[in-house]
Amino acid sequence: MNYNPAFAKTMERLLSGEVICEIAYREGFDLLNDPRQFTLINDTLTHMGRRLAKTEDDVGYYAVYRDLNDPGLRRSIQNRFARIAGDWEPLCHWLKLTRKISHDRYPIHAGDTLSLSGLLASVEDSVSSQKDVEKIARRFKISTRKDTKGQLEGILKHLEEEGYLVPYGASGASYKATSRWSLLMEMMTYIQRQEGILAEEVAEEEMTDEPQGGLF
Q: Which superkingdom, per the lineage (predicted)?
């Protein structure tokens, strides 16, 4: 088989934990949408103990492990998960902020465009929104200027580095959201569902353990 740069780059990105979509890497996304190439990449990942998965909204591909029984592998996954989870609180605040200032009142999702000037215009007349920006920058541990513009610049740069945004246009201050937001929402929904199940189990146990003296 001849060397295929797009295939190699797609494999590298999948193995590094990236989510591939038409925004983050269009060539790789088109490759994975080809059934023959999808099978070839998935078969290659299988030899490495992984497989392809797709976000529930069908906008992104990523690689997951097939077998989680290996202790070393589980520790590696736990460490990666802990790193992602460490950003969840500021990410949640960012989702709430973008929903509050957006015209359609929906949180950011894959394909959305963001610009520094647009965000600044949306928050500059709201003390509450400016405080939200300051809190998000602090939670991301971003060392920036104390003004709102500097804080927004730091937040956008951090989200770009983490794969949630990619630069868009020639200005250097406009971005497009990637499908990593879709995966984040799925992970958050899963955690909330699990916490709900645990809460129900605890409540049932507490009810079972309650003294029954009133019945006799």
A: Bacteria
